[in-house]
Amino acid sequence: MSATTPSEARLGALLTSPWTLALVVWLAFFWQLGGPPLYDLDEGAFTEATREMLATGNWITPHKDGEPRYDKPVLIYWLQAASVAALGLSEFALRLPSAIAATFWLVALWAFVREHLDAFTAGVAALAMALSLEIGIIGKAAVADAVLNLFIALAFFDAYRWWSHPRRAVLLRIYLWLGLGFLTKGPVAVFFPFAVTLLYALSYGQPRRWLAAVFAPWGWLVFLLVAAPWYVAVYVDTGGAFFESFFLKHNLGRYGGVIHSHAGFPGYYLVALPLVVLPFTGWLLRLLGLGRALWADPLDRFLLLWFLVVFVFFSFSSTKLPHYMVYGITPLFILMARHRAALESRWLALLPPLLFLVLLALLPLLLWPIAGLAERSHEQAMWDAAAGVLDWPYRLAMLAALLVWIGLWRWNGAACWQRLIVLGVVQTLVVSGMLMPRVLDVMQAPVKEAGQIARSLDLPTVVYRTSMPSFSVYRQAVTPARPPRPGDLVFLRIDKLQALQRQLPQADLATVYERGPVMLVKVGHD
To answer: CB of 384 within 8 A of CB of 442?
Structure first.
């Protein structure tokens, strides 16, 4: 491993300065936070449940379009509702709790690494986390994942602190984070900390220490005081329906079966993980050669087990989604930062972000052949619209990004990890500033416009065989899925129009709005 040069030292000090970290946090989690419209299904489902919670005053059982929503526990809805109550109903207010949670998550990582390693390594780990592709996406999404990962990370950090120096206050804090995580997304928030710490204790032949922590009565009292009141209240309110749906379908069911068509092949996460951590894929791959050295160090072993348990567990799950890996990538940023000097190959470091940037740059040329493969009308409409939004500003931005890559490749005054941090900033600017706003404009801006038009018309409105709950958010009213009747305004995907015509053969269906994949039609009298 080569020694650090003076120019690398100066650049490292600049990159890890508090001002740079603050700027990166703003760029990763707050910039463009309220710009793009809400995306369906996820953001639409969460935010419509939040809107209905505020509208009905039912703070116990979340509802989406008038029906109970048992997918997740209540904490994320409470946080979003508090933000909306303070700031008004907007994309910014609905996403703000996630951005704040992601910021605290990053601060918790920085504090932990500074405590157990040093401030410089803490800064590097925080930069890598904030600028990775998937963290940047979920940190700006109005869903539960940023909040959940905050509590999972806090539980793991305090678990290692307790293992190193057992103190009651730290142990009680662990149970506080577990309770809050259980209130955010249920058993997953408890399972991974318990499983990883058990394996860690067994690896040192000290299971009794683990048992002492697991059977701490005061800890469980804290857990129950945090989580139990709402679970008792929702049981009383739903008569047990929440427990049957949430625990059996949305937890056991997701692991043993495929939910919402989110299936994946056995090696799914071998492919997804390199994409999730872009542009730091090569940095991550370099860790593979350090396996024995990582296992020999107590902190590295803990971090490695944290990642491996999550990776192996979800590899055997029937339902697979890229963001599941986020539960286990926090330790990878620490390992990469700690062993940053091991990354010496420019090709290994810079080739993955180059391939990603080239793919984004070629998107305008790839759209036409891809559009030709679309079979359904709403997909064809979206691809046709996409061709127009990848305009010259987008192309010039991609050209600038590629020129930055070339400059970083030729620059000899920076370490490989430093080049990747700069590319992380470039990637965030491109994805958050150019790509995502255009993608969501194609997919979701028509849904937003349709919702606003429906609100202004103030007619009885139904949704027909279409699951885009953000429509109800923008309409600011429940949109039932009952059969359409004369006088109704109907929101539907354009490929469902023929089915609606067959269902109402005598009715006059007047198009009120049509753009991209969706439309509004008014049902006339027979």
So the answer is: no
Angstrom distance (rounded) from CA 298 to CA 294 = 8
- What whole-number distance in Å separates Cα of residue 151 and Cα of residue 159? 12
Given its phi and psi angles, is residue 87 left (phi above 0), alpha (psi -120 to 50 degrees) or beta?
Answer: alpha
Nearest to 267 by CA among 222, 316, 307, 212: 316
**Distance in Å from the first CA to the final CA of the chain:** 80
| Other residues' Cβ atoms within 10 Å of the Cβ of residue 313 | 17
Comparing C-alpha atoms, which of 440, 481, 432, 431 is closest to residue 461?
481
* pTM passes above 0.90: yes
The CA-based diameter of the chain, rounded to the nearest angstrom, is: 82
- For β-strands 509-515 and 518-523, DSSP reports them as antiparallel
Question: Could you give the count of Cα atoms lying within 13 Å of 24 in the half-sphere of its Cβ?
Answer: 29
The DSSP output letter for 34 is T
For residues 7 and 42, what is the distance between their CA atoms, to the nearest angstrom? Answer: 45
Q: Are 371 and 311 in contact (CB under 8 A)?
A: no
* Cα(35)–Cα(468) distance, integer angstroms: 19
Tens of pLDDT along 38-89? 999 899 999 999 999 999 999 999 999 999 999 899 999 999 999 999 999 9
Give the Cα separation of 486 and 503 in Å (integer). Answer: 13
Q: Which ranges constitute the DSSP H helices of 316-444?
A: 330-338, 346-371, 377-389, 392-410, 416-430, 436-443
